[in-house]
Amino acid sequence: MFDLDRFVQDCTAALDDASPEMATREIVAAAVSDPADLMRAIGEPERGGIYTLHNSDRLTVLNLVWGPEMVLMPHDHRMWASIGIYTGREVNVFWRRGADGLEQLGRKEMSERDANWLGATAIHSVTNPLSRLTGALHVYGGDFFGTPRSEWDAETLEESPYDVAKARRLFDESNQRLDSGQRR
Ligand SMILES: [Fe+2]
Question: pTM score, two decimals?
């Protein structure tokens, strides 16, 4: 049975591993291997949002619920991340800084039970391609909320400091779409 305290303990122990991003990827993969069991512990997604399960200087664990068809512009984290999907689907587009600004590197689609890790310099944009909520377990090797980082405009690809209020607005808008979809 999934136990959040044990999960955080395991991830904390993995911070001392030579490759903590790969070690935590294994822990995340095990957690999302049984989505029903995980959701009994953390709840089934009901609204889009960033739900903090654990936050310290060295480790952040989030339950990230993407709204229907939600798109999050390119951004970085400045710390490694391990991501696992427990319901729905997430499309990641990876980018890098090039001579003429941001360049697309590749694309990776993640479905239920998939887990993946991202290096500290990774830049990605995320789309939920489904008309329902997607739920993902995210583990970060640092203080996700206290670390300054960048985002890039979805259209112009211009870099600016990450705007937490804007991100919250995107989740709010996705929840409004969710509400109007349910009313239809
Ligand atoms: Fe991200």
Answer: 0.94
